[in-house]
Structures are given as structure tokens and as C-alpha cells.
């Protein structure tokens, strides 16, 4: 069943279209020091190759601002045209003004209206960033974060709520402030000359139910393109589960035009994990396809050998490794399904449902592994080279069926 998308305006970001009927876009953010041109360029390249369609980088000081154009040049030299988004807090008005090469090299500016200044200074500094976005014809993400709300807006709205006939409770009020901050900031940007088709909104919170409630309200009250993400989602399985729980609900309701999974990396872990999780979330929901899906059983007492687990891991890694080349030569290959099953209970049935599948022998079963192609048994593999032979069969299937 196709999901009916909330109708939003389309926004073009360095050749990538966000919103309207465009596919939901996957983005990520580096955690390197942007002043370190080499390490930042390497991480952006890794994220882009993993499938991140936009990459955000921190621009927090003069040295970082000077590095942006050099990072862009390095990526271009590698043939990587992934758009760079500049993440600005506190001093973005000055950095963009003083470093035109940075302002030009970035494909989009991210502004947090809660920390561009306070009072009259806030108004002028926010206005300066919008004016520069207009000058360089760059879209802007107005990104409200519950941990850095504009103090003036909070005070004003809390006072209004205190005098209301039916005041909102604390949680409701926080959500309303988030939505109001985003919408008022967007309206001010339009008054300053920015087009509504150059605006993306986000209202990031760290609570699953809070995030769902805020985005539902935002979607009801505007047609700006919306960026989804659970901020400070956490590490490992907690971060993955929390982000998926929140974003899946919104995506199922057709809300969201671009997403990021904000994972805290494990020590020494790859930053690219957040890209893979975002892709797998979208693919599991049937929203987009990025790489062939591997169906594998969880294992039980019938599968005391770990061979099927190792093979499933090998196949999945192989598919991801081959996808960049396959995408160019084999259109539609991302829709392929591969089954790696561990015993005779569900093995043959699941393998028949996949494009290509293998049913490995469980404990006590005959040491043979039938392979099914498009529902038909084609060969039975035996011996020590089952893994290599099956991966070869997968490659042959791709070559023969996706041309």
C-alpha cells in the first residue's frame, strides 16, 4: 500500500530536490573538526558513498569557514557532488559575511532561531543570514531545537499561556513554542525576501511522543518541506529504536521530506551507520529502495551452527559493496530480495518468496543447501565452498535479470 505524502513545497538543494513528490532524502552530519580539511573531506566522502544525499558540516569559527571551499574542492576532485549544508550557531551572520567563498560553496544554510542572538541583536543577525541566503540563492533550514529555544519567545508565550482561560500544560506549551518558533521564523524569512520554496523546517526533540506531536501540528499548519530527526537519540540499539519509533509513525502518516538518524557513534564505530539505518528504515517501510534486502531467520535450537549467520552477513556486506556499480549498470537491482535461511522449517518457503534464496541445513539435516531462483529450485550446493558459490549465483542473477 502506497503511503500518501503530506503535500509540501519542493526545495532544490544543490541538485537534490526535497519535498513535494520527490523521494524522502537521507542526510547525515560529520563529527570531525571542519577546520581539518583532510579528515572532514574523508568523512563526507564516506557518508556520501554510503548513500547520504546531503551532508551537514559544522561551521563554527573562522578557520572552519575558510576550510569549507577547500573541502568542496576535494570532493569535486573525487567526483562527489554531494551537497554540503553549513550548520551555524551564534556567529553565522558574521562567518557568512566575512567568508564569501564559504557562503558560495555551501548548498544550504542551517539556522537555529534560538541562538542567533537576543533582542534587537537577534533580529538583525537573523536578518543578515537570510539576506545572505537571498544574495547567494541558497535555501535555508530553519531548525528549532527544544534544548535551545529563543528565551524571548519562551517568556512571551509563557506569559500569554498564564493568562489564558484554558492554559496548556508544560509539555503542550513546549511543543507549541517549538512550532510557533519555526513558523514565525519562516514568516520573517519570507518578509526579508526568501521564497517559501527555499525553506525547510525542523523541530527536533529528544522524546518520541513529543516529536510525533510537534510534527503532526507542524504538518497541519504549513506546507513547508519538513526535515525529520530525533535529536540526541542516543547510542546503539537505543538510538536506533527511538529514532525508528518516532520517524516510522510520521513517515507512515506521510509527514517528512528528509530524514537523519542522529546516532551517538560507538567508540571507534563508523559514522556511516546513521546513513545505513536511515536507508533501512525507509526500505523496510516500502518508501524507497537502496540495496537488495537480505531475509534471514533469527536462529533457534535447530540452527546451532553459526554458518547461516556468517553467510547472511557476508551476503549483506557483498550487496552493499557492489551497489555503487550495480546502480549504474543494473536498474531496479535495489528492489531485489535475497533469502539466507538456517533450516528446513521455513527455509524453502522463504527462499521461494525471494528473488534468490538458499536454505542451509539445520542441526541433524542432510548437509546440502538447495538454492531457489524466482520460486524454482535450481541447484543444490554442498561442500566447503557453499558461501562463495552462493554469492557467485547472486552476482549471476543480477547480471541476467537487471539489464
UniProtKB/TrEMBL annotation:
Pathway: Isoprenoid biosynthesis; isopentenyl diphosphate biosynthesis via DXP pathway; isopentenyl diphosphate from 1-deoxy-D-xylulose 5-phosphate: step 5/6. It catalyses: (2E)-4-hydroxy-3-methylbut-2-enyl diphosphate + oxidized [flavodoxin] + H2O + 2 H(+) = 2-C-methyl-D-erythritol 2,4-cyclic diphosphate + reduced [flavodoxin]. The keyword Metal-binding applies. Keywords: 4Fe-4S, Iron, Iron-sulfur, Isoprene biosynthesis, Metal-binding, Oxidoreductase. Its EC number is 1.17.7.3. Pfam families: GcpE, GcpE_C. Its cofactor is [4Fe-4S] cluster. InterPro entries: Dihydropteroate_synth-like_sf, IspG_bac, IspG_bac-typ, IspG_C, IspG_TIM, NO2/SO3_Rdtase_4Fe4S_sf. Residues 294-395 form the IspG C-terminal domain. Binds 1 [4Fe-4S] cluster. GO terms for biological process: isopentenyl diphosphate biosynthetic process, methylerythritol 4-phosphate pathway; terpenoid biosynthetic process. [4Fe-4S] cluster binds at residues 297, 300, 343, 350. Residues 8-278 form the IspG TIM-barrel domain. GO terms for molecular function: 4 iron, 4 sulfur cluster binding; 4-hydroxy-3-methylbut-2-en-1-yl diphosphate synthase activity (ferredoxin); 4-hydroxy-3-methylbut-2-enyl-diphosphate synthase activity (flavodoxin); iron ion binding. It is an enzyme of class 1 (oxidoreductase). Belongs to the IspG family. PANTHER family: 4-HYDROXY-3-METHYLBUT-2-EN-1-YL DIPHOSPHATE SYNTHASE, 4-HYDROXY-3-METHYLBUT-2-EN-1-YL DIPHOSPHATE SYNTHASE (FERREDOXIN), CHLOROPLASTIC. Converts 2C-methyl-D-erythritol 2,4-cyclodiphosphate (ME-2,4cPP) into 1-hydroxy-2-methyl-2-(E)-butenyl 4-diphosphate. NCBIfam families: ispG_gcpE, PRK00366.1. This is 4-hydroxy-3-methylbut-2-en-1-yl diphosphate synthase (flavodoxin). It comes from Candidatus Thiodiazotropha endoloripes.
